[in-house]
Write a structure and sequence with these properties.
Oligomer: single chain
Number of strands: 6
Radius of gyration: 25 Å
Helix content: 25-40%
Number of helices: 3
Order of helices and strands: HEEEHEEEH
Largest sheet: 6 strands, antiparallel
């Protein structure tokens, strides 16, 4: 009986300790904040004219459909309004840079519904998008409205073609299982 009591006492102390350490593993593996976003830019054409534009950014922590990240720089120019806040100007510059980036390097898809054509550009971007203002090239005047020239830099990964999504999902699932197993061993 003394052996059973010692084993029982050992089991009572080890089980809670093991549960505590297992529950701590996700806390160490989790990133501090969200820095990877799925970005989609939709342009809706009706009768060969642009009817609407939508820019969508959602967190993409486990996006398996993307290709490899590369650092990109995009130059852009937007018009300035007289009483526009600096925060609003930088937000418009970031949005314009993302739209240009998606148009030039994103995965393009076209869909037609009810006499409307929707052209979508998709990709994954890592934040922050760094905006560096350039020197103004033309002086502002009555004929020349003031403009904001900038260069934006970020990390971008286009989405893979849909025929590769199943293979990428399987590969991501295998990687996740192996990482989980290795974390358990540590």
């Amino acid at each position: 009986m003394p052996f059973l009591n010692k084993s029982y006492i050992l089991l009572v102390f080890i089980c809670p300790a093991a549960v505590f350490f297992i529950l701590q593993i996700p806390a160490f593996a989790a990133p501090d904040g969200i820095d990877t976003y799925y970005v989609r830019y939709d342009i809706i054409y009706v009768n060969h004219r642009v009817a609407d534009e939508n820019l969508l950014m959602v967190p993409a922590q486990n996006e398996f459909r993307m290709e490899k990240f590369s650092q990109v720089r995009i130059a852009g120019v937007i018009s300035m309004t007289p009483r526009e806040s600096k925060n609003r100007l930088w937000t418009r510059a970031r949005d314009q840079a993302l739209k240009q980036l998606l148009r030039s390097r994103g995965l393009t898809s076209v869909e037609t519904r009810n006499m409307a054509t929707i052209v979508s550009y998709e990709g994954v971007v890592r934040t922050p998008v760094q905006i560096v203002p350039d020197a103004e090239t033309a002086p502002a005047g009555p004929e020349n409205p003031p403009v904001f020239s900038f260069t934006a830099g970020t990390w971008f990964a286009p989405l893979a073609f849909p025929d590769q999504w199943q293979r990428r999902e399987t590969k991501a699932l295998m990687r996740k299982k192996i990482e989980g197993f290795l974390e358990l061993i540590r």
